[in-house]
Amino acid sequence: MVANNQLLIVFTSAESKQNTEGIAYQWNYYVVENQYGDDGVKPDTCSNRGESAPLPNKNKALVLVNHFKTVPVKILTCEDNSEQLVDMIKTCYLAAGNRWANYVAVNFYKRSSGGGTFRAVDKLNGELLCGRDDVHAC
């Protein structure tokens, strides 16, 4: 995708939109993901979202890690989007059959400490591109 400068993929969780709007229905062939909301931010736990195939299902090419509370509280997000996010990505790596997330969903992505969401994405890109802990090491 990068080589072809095709950098946007759109998925829907509403099956009807695949036929009416041509948007790929994420559960058919594409995505596994962990639970979103309060149940998805429990430390050391990466539970499966109900609609998703099981996280270790390698017939689905993409892994999505959700990491946001049910009710977004901006003032608490700094903690959520910092070390907790990196820890969740590592936990979900194991739960997804040793597969790194291809993308991450968070609230208030600019709010964090210690690098936050940007550090987490740098880690994922490093792991996915060259097996290193940070994309800048590739």
Tally of helical runs: 5
| Distance between the amino and carboxyl termini | 19 Å
Structural class: alpha/beta
Shape from CA axes?
Answer: globular
Features:
globular; PI-PLC X domain-containing protein At5g67130-like; three-stranded parallel β-sheet; PI-PLC_domain; PLC-like_Pdiesterase_TIM-brl
Describe the structure.
The chain is of the alpha/beta class and 138 residues long. It has one domain (28-137). Helices cover 30% and strands 11% of the residues. The protein has helices at residues 16-21, 26-29, 77-80, 83-95, 116-130; strands spanning 11-12, 24-25, 31-33, 62-66, 103-105. The chain has a 3-stranded parallel β-sheet with strand order 3-4-5. Strands 1-2 form a two-stranded parallel ribbon. Helix 4 runs parallel beside helix 5. The longest helix is centred in the C-terminal third of the chain and has 15 residues, at 116-130. The protein is globular and about 45 Å long.
Task: Describe the secondary structure blueprint for this structure.
Blueprint: E1 11-12, H1 16-21, E2 24-25, H2 26-29, E3 31-33, E4 62-66, H3 77-80, H4 83-95, E5 103-105, H5 116-130
Parallel strand pairs: 1-2, 3-4, 4-5
Helix pairs in contact: 4-5
Short description:
This protein is α/β, with parallel strands linked by helices and 138 residues long. Helix content is 30%, strand content 11%.
